Amino acid sequence: MSDAVGSHPQYDAFADDFLDHAHSGIHNAHCDRPACLELLGEVDGRSVLDVACGPGLYAEELVARGARVVGFDQSPRMIELCRQRAPSGEFRVHDLAERLDWLPDGSVDRVLFALGIEYVDDRVAALRELRRVLRPDGAFVLSRPHPTGTWLHHGGSYFDVRVVEDVWSRGWRLRYWLAPLEQTCEELREAGFLIERLLEPRPRAESADTDPERYERMSREPTAFLALRAVPDPRR
Q1: Residue ranges of the chain whose pLDDT lies below 70
Q2: Which of 85, 99, 116, 137 could hold 56 in an S-S bridge, CB 3.0 to 4.6 Å?
């Protein structure tokens, strides 16, 4: 297997199914989205760049909270779905491997990159570009699969940075990067960020009745996600 995920929009083939899965599922609706929104803080009147915006579930909530949302995704179908959910936003098909030449330096107050960095081959270059468009007093919120959970799932060395291929429960076949927490922290530092806060989100209590088995496991094991808030390093 090559050490690259590539630029193929993997989610395009099952974008509608993913929307159904993520809308109310325990992982997204009761774990990752609440954590990311908490870390973003007050967004009323602020501009938010939604990176890898998917079907618009984060964008919809951000608009409801008063944010001006701009977003992009590799998948054309995801952008169609996103525009339906958040029609006041501005969304386009774009690959993060390419420069965000349609956004000026320091033009957004917040950047959200939820559960997407594991599909990026040159993560430092992508993070630098996100820092470029973020205002000096802005904040960057990133979530990713918990590295301990992915290591327990795939085995091998926890410290190896490598591409794996996985088949999810609905039969979705995906390629993505595994990396230890240290690697993510170093990539953020190299791109010019300082980590301000890190969460290991557990599912919200109301999900216990809808999916008790997953709720119990995710409440005691690091099998879900990490979410962190970073700010531009003023020294760089």
Answers
A1: 1-2
A2: 85
